[in-house]
Amino acid sequence: MAMGSGPNGSNLKNGVIALLVPLPSILFYLCFLSNCGGGSGLWKWCYHHPLLLVNALFFFNVNLVFWLISHLQSSHWMIDLYWTLIPVMLVHYFASHPLAEYNELRSWVAVALTWIWSIRLSHNYLRREGWQLGAREDWRFTDMRRQYGKNWWWASFFAVYLSQQVFLMGVCLPLYVVHSVEEGLKLWDLVAISVCGCGIGMAYFADTQLHEFVSRNRKLKMSGKSLVPILEEGLWRYCRHPNYFGEQLWWWGLGILGWGLGQRWSLAGALLNTICLAYVTKLVEDRMVKQHYRAEAYRQYQKTTSVWIPRFRASLHKEKNM
Prior knowledge:
Layout: H1 7-20, H2 23-35, H3 42-48, H4 50-73, H5 78-83, H6 86-96, H7 104-128, H8 139-148, H9 152-171, H10 173-178, H11 187-222, H12 242-260, H13 268-289, H14 295-304, H15 314-321
Helix pairs in contact: 4-9, 6-7, 7-11, 8-9, 9-13, 11-12, 12-13
């Protein structure tokens, strides 16, 4: 095994790595905070350029360090785990930077929502992986590894890490806006909070239903019985990717927070992420119809069920009445 001599050993080792890997950025930032009062040179630059500083920390500590570790372990598992953690680190960075100015209640709500989102997504990630860290990498990275062959060692830096910086920093820009504008609460804040809350709730229930479906199929496979080809119960009856839709609601809700503070450009990250997710959705569906035991059932599911936005399956009712 590339990541340890056994499951328990690998899990412990990867857990230690995951805890230690962000320390360079954290220690550097704490050092900056203790010197920013009368500092000069590097500390002065860090003081006046909060967005450039956080992008520099991301580039060196995530892109470079994670990339090097991935080559040592022959796996890009860690970026998936930290996708759920980096937004929490970013919201606290934006709130604690010396130049931050904000409405305290709005900041508290943004921090609380980000923590709730992170806990939900982290729980789903660990549950999906059987509570094992680094047991496998995202199947899309595995496919790209085969596609790029010998060039994967350098292409992975751009495809896996630099691209993640663009997406993560983009979708988290509203958290920066929240901590750079000091205005009273508005109606837009209530709209944003509602959208974020609905997104988190929908993603949680959709992922829980998917986890239960996968667990049931795993038991059927172990007992030698036929697998259920597709999940079309609960939220999955009304759209084919309710977990994706819930996640998009969360990011668009954050974007509305920035929009309500007069920074319309803060929606750009949510828009870019939605475009990317549309491509990922296509990859997932192409993968589904290539699996023999569920191909035909999934094609019918595609004909009768919305992709993202939940709606009643009117076309299915028509077919039954014919």
